[in-house]
Amino acid sequence: MTVSRREFLKGSAAALALGMVGAPACAAAAAGNEENVDKWVKGVCRYCGTGCGVLVGVKGDRAVAVKGDPNNHNAGLLCLKGAMLIPVIYAEDRVTEPMIRRGGKGSPLSKVTWDEALDFAAKPFREALAASGPNAIAYYGSGQALTEESYLANKIWKAGFKTNNVDGNPRLCMASAVAGYLTTFGKDEPMGTYDDMDAATCFFIIGSNTSEAHPVLFRRIAQRKESSPDVKVVVADPRRTNTSRIADLHLSFIAGTDLALLNGMAHVIIREELDNPRFYGRYANFVTNDGKPCTFEDYKVFLADYTPEKVQEITSIPAADVIKAAKIFAESSSTLSLWCMGINQRTRGVWANNLIHNLHLLTGQIGRPGASPLSLTGQPNACGGVRDTGSLAHLLPAGRMVANEKHRAEMEEFWGVPKGTIQPKMGHHTVALFEAMAKGDVKAVFIHCTNPAHTLPDLNALTKGLETAFVAQTECFMDAETLKYADVVFPAAFWCETEGVYGCTERRYSITEQAIKPMGNSRPTIQILMDFARKAGVDPKLFPYKTAADIWEEWRTLSKGSPYDFYGMTRDRLKKESGIKWPCPTEDHPGTNLRYVRGEDPLVPANHPDRLFFYGRPDGKANIFLRPYQPPFEPADKDYPFVLTTGRVIDHWHTATMTGKVPELQKAYPSAFVEINPDDAKKLGVSNGDQVVLETRRDKMTFPARITDTCMPGLVFCPFFDKNKLVNRLFHHAVDNASKEPEYKICATKVYKQA
Ligand SMILES: Nc1nc2c(c(=O)[nH]1)N[C@H]1C(S)=C(S)[C@@H](COP(=O)(O)OP(=O)(O)OC[C@H]3O[C@@H](n4cnc5c(=O)[nH]c(N)nc54)[C@H](O)[C@@H]3O)O[C@H]1N2
Ligand SMILES: Nc1nc2c(c(=O)[nH]1)N[C@H]1C(S)=C(S)[C@@H](COP(=O)(O)OP(=O)(O)OC[C@H]3O[C@@H](n4cnc5c(=O)[nH]c(N)nc54)[C@H](O)[C@@H]3O)O[C@H]1N2
Ligand code: SF4
Ligand SMILES: [Mo]
Predict the structure, then answer these.
(1) What would the mean pLDDT of 580-603 be, rounded to a whole number?
(2) What CATH number did the domain enclosing 451 receive?
């Protein structure tokens, strides 16, 4: 019923286009048996933050095919993961019944009725609340949950249980980008969109392996480059990834040193008079690292330390290449920066984000088609579902902050709860939450749509939290590692078994309609959340909803007049159209491409004196920050002489609970490995396939070697999808000071051949 990998590649024109860069393909072809379809139902791909529109073919009561939605931004294209979604729905190990662990952790899970499971879950939450107050419980959510689910959970926990212990996997992912946008522009979310990819004349791709992590977007970039030979691509990544193969200039460097590169580029831009004083004079302020106003002259003095030669010393990038990169960035008519986890998952991730924004503000490469700092989002609904609804420990909906008294009062009024209900203190961010669970401070946690026992950093330390606290978990697949720690498991309706909205990288909201019934005894998560909350003692007046559409209506109303205004996106409209980009304040508004731009963004007054208005900040100007280079938390040293970095492969989604069920995907990457540079392999006496030990200060593990020049000497790479090789046991859990995002991209390791 699905096409094979080979057929898929053969049938795809895009494969030919990308053949030249060796990137696996995108196809317009439907995966599945198209003739047998009764109706096509609109949706969004379950996987990455590209947010491709799909159409799900239904025959009788079964989903039988998937194809790209020709009317969404992906113009009918999907990558192999998206095209292979059907077999995931019908995987044999779907969780279909509620289960509890009667004998406590370590005892077997047994199937029970919904009522028993809900009672079993509610009791420890009630007890924790009674004994220790609201901060003894928590919600740990996901950028893959539907918007309606995250909005509801956030409301139940913050206004119902009265705790801000609401966090989730976007903390591991987008938190540094959020804090970067907030500090530079005053509000979260990018100003650009995918349309910029068709207009850009320079792509500055830093810390993003776009070809594997956002394949359909990569195709758009590759196509742009192919059709316009003048288009330049600069890739800054310590690894020579598939993405870097289309680069005119690939900057490889010692992992964790690119803050020096970014400051070095600014140095060159000013030295060569490639800056745009008219632009930053009008639209930017200069700000010291500790937040004080300063001048352009101060900035120049600060940058004096970052000569190309000095940058070469720190990063290992040849000085001439630093100059080249700066010139391409500044001299192109429109430069689009794209970045992802290579920048965010860093102890200085927020600073790195600020430094990218600096380059755009310094050169005026912003607020025009093709010129924008566009942070790529990882998960399909980290933007719409978590960042926009404020479902993190420090946030409230639509750009509001927990620490802001006025914002709390606004939310209390809107939610109809007494003043003072929302705590002024932020909740635990992710790492702190799992530490608090281990200490017994947080006694019960509700985990939704994420697999922390596999994906948290420093697993040996942080899974103690899951061993100690009571864990209620929603899941769809039995092989999720976290189920080992769950005290109660709620079977959740999976993708296209229920309806809801996803918001992707480009401020675009698209709906997935229900195509089929939930499998077995599974239920839509909004129902699970409401039933659970009622039993745990939350006043049901807080959630008078019958359907996901009711929740959407409330959230849409709440956005009205806010900097996230999407009041114009009615449910009906979302069902008729294939994705709309906010701001979209009225039902007849087409959505916004260029945020902050007069005449484009409906939130900029038509008579505003300036073309650009960064309305997130009081004076309407963005910040250029003087952020110094700082090394990573644990660089390589004498005892642990290699850097270990981790990341993704094109065919697996995170912990492979879904992609691992698709033979075509699983066969491409059956298990984890370690990539080692040929020179290092020679010195270590390692051949391809040899078992190699990685030993860090936390733990040691063995992986088969893949000898490849993808990694520069001194660097090794492991993917993290394999539950039989939990590479996160090797990692520390140092986090960024401001965003609290862990540094998954860098730790020091020994590498040696297994005796
Ligand atoms: N196939 C697939 N696609 C996915 C996902 C998936 O699991 N599988 N997950 C989605 C999610 S949630 C996310 S967050 C995104 C992640 O998307 P990406 O961030 O593009 O993917 P990663 O492989 O995590 O890391 C990107 C690159 O960062 C580089 N890097 C390492 N250290 C540094 C450094 O110090 N500086 C710089 N500049 N770069 C560095 C690595 O070499 C790597 O190539 O992918 C999304 N898309
Ligand atoms: N070493 C290393 N670790 C990392 C990263 C890295 O780069 N390196 N990246 C980090 C990043 S950016 C991210 S985003 C995280 C991702 O980490 P996780 O979110 O923990 O990983 P997933 O595999 O996406 O987990 C989703 C879980 O939800 C289940 N699921 C799927 N659909 C549904 C549904 O509809 N309902 C419910 N209830 N459950 C469902 C899946 O079976 C799976 O168990 O990993 C982080 N961890
Ligand atoms: S690029 Fe991302 S959203 Fe698009 S089909 Fe592939 S996994 Fe799905
Ligand atoms: Mo992510």
Answers:
(1) 98
(2) 3.40.50.740
Tokens, residue 435: 């530490």
β-partners of residue 53 are 44
Last residue of a domain, one of 544, 565, 597: 544
Specify the pTM.
Answer: 0.97
Between the CA of 240 and the centroid of ligand 4 the distance, in Å, is 21
Closest to 78 (Cα-Cα) out of 34, 24, 41, 33: 24
Residue 35 shares a structural domain with residue 131: no
Instruction: For residues 169 and 447, give the distance between their C-alpha atoms in angstroms, rounded to a whole number.
Output: 10
Pair 457, 732: CB distance under 8 Å: yes
Inter-residue contact 371 to 239 (CB < 8 Å): no
The residue to which tokens 């990569």 are assigned: 218
Residue with tokens 């956030």: 154
Known active-site residue 81: yes
Determine what percent of the chain falls in helix, strand and coil, rounding each to the nearest 5: 35, 20, 45
Q: Which contiguous run of DSSP H or E holds residue 319? A: helix 319-331
Residue 313 lies in a domain: yes
| Tokens at 68, concatenated | 């790209």
In this structure, which amino acid lies at residue 505? T
User: Beta strands 500-503 and 508-512: pairing type?
Assistant: antiparallel
By percentage, how much of the chain surpasses pLDDT 70?
A: 95
In a domain, 24, yes or no: yes
The reply to whether 147 and 39 lie within a common domain is no
CB 52 less than 6 A from any atom of ligand 3:
yes
Pick the residue whose CA is nearest to atom 33 on ligand 2: 449
Is 130 a domain residue? yes
HSE-CB at 3 with a 13 A cutoff on CA atoms is 24
Instruction: Name the residue range of residue 401's domain.
Output: 113-171+381-544
pLDDT digits (tens, 9 = 90+) for 135-171: 999 999 999 999 999 999 999 999 999 999 999 999 9
Q: Return the ligand 1 atom nearest residue 346 CA.
A: 35
Using the mean position of ligand 4's atoms as its centre, give its distance from the Cα of residue 377 in Å.
7
Whose atoms come closest to the Cα of 504: which ligand? 3
Length of the chain: 755
Question: 439 pLDDT band (50/70/90 cuts)?
Answer: very high
Q: Are residues 385 and 458 in the same domain?
A: yes
Ligand 2 centroid to Cα of residue 271, in Å, is: 44
Looking at the fold, whether 54 and 166 belong to one and the same domain comes out as no
Mention every residue, 6+ apart, whose C-beta is less than 8 A from residue 566: 509, 556, 559, 580, 582, 583, 584, 585
Question: Does 397 contact ligand 2 (Cβ within 6 A)?
Answer: no
Would you say residue 488 lies in a domain? yes
**Per-residue pLDDT tens for 346-394?**
999 999 999 999 999 999 999 999 999 999 999 999 999 999 999 999 9
Is-catalytic flag, 519? no
Helices of type H across 12-135: 13-19, 80-83, 86-89, 114-132
Which amino acid makes up residue 551?
Answer: I
CA atoms within 13 A on the CB side of 575: 12
Torsion sign over Cα 633, 639, 643, 648: negative
DSSP strand pairing (284-287 vs 622-625): parallel
For ligand 2, what atom is nearest to the CA of residue 482?
44
| 403 and 274 inside one domain | no
Tell me the sheet residues that pair with 501: 511
Which CATH number does the domain housing residue 724 bear?
2.40.40.20
- C-alpha 374/C-alpha 366 separation (Å) is 10
As a whole number, mean pLDDT of residues 607-619 equals 97
Same domain assignment for residues 272 and 322? yes
Tell which residue, 424, 423, 418, 650, has the closest CA to residue 541: 418
Alpha carbon of 213 to ligand 3 centroid (Å) = 8
383 Cβ neighbours under 8 A, 6+ residues apart: 49, 143, 174, 189, 377, 503, 504, 505, 507
Reading the block at residue 185, the tokens are 């522009």
Number of domain units in the chain: 4
Q: Among 585, 536, 596, 529, which residue's Cα sits nearest to residue 561? A: 585
- How are beta strands 78-79 and 99-100 bridged, if at all? unpaired
Cβ atoms < 10 Å from Cβ of 534? 17
Last residue of a domain, one of 57, 89, 121: 89
